[in-house]
Amino acid sequence: MRIDRFSAGMLLGAALIFAGVLLTQAGYDAFFLVAGGVAALATTVVRRWQRGNEPEKDERTNKIRAFGLAYSWLVSIIIVLIIFCATIMGFISIDAITALSITIYIMTGSAIVSLAVLHRRGDVDWS
């Protein structure tokens, strides 16, 4: 039995909401499960609404995704290297949590930007 992505997303959202409500009724602080379930449902519905019956992946989108995440990885490595060198040379003094937070934000932001740029361009060739 094969289940499509739309049904899987709807089932995941409903299961999270159901588990969150049950655990909240039992006295646990499980509102985050309900919020996650609502987010899963909303994401599933919006993706279906935006794409309709088009295929979710094809060769072009796979290539764009691979190159976009590779560019994001390179930007993140460069930023981490800059933070490392600045810390070793004494220009800045940050703790591990701050350095990891900066790294996570840079990785996420550069991935979103690179994927958006490549999707807008429609191809990964830079020539």
In short:
It comes from hydrocarbon metagenome. It contains 4 helices and no strands. The protein is an all-alpha fold.
How would you portray this structure in words?
The protein has about 130 residues and is mainly alpha-helical. The chain folds into 2 domains: about 5-50; about 60-120. The chain has 4 helices and no strands. It has helices at about 5-25, 30-50, 60-90, 95-120. Helix 1 packs antiparallel against helix 2 and helix 3 (about 60-90) runs antiparallel to helix 4 (about 95-120). The longest helix has about 30 residues, at about 60-90. It is flat and about 55 Å long. The mean pLDDT is about 85.
Q: Please give the count of helices.
A: 4
Q: Per the principal axes of the C-alpha atoms, what is the gross shape?
A: flat
Tell me the helix content. Answer: over 70%
Proportion in β-strands: under 5%
Please, how many domains?
2
Protein name: DUF2178 domain-containing protein
Keywords: Membrane, Transmembrane, Transmembrane helix
InterPro entries: MFS_trans_sf (IPR036259)
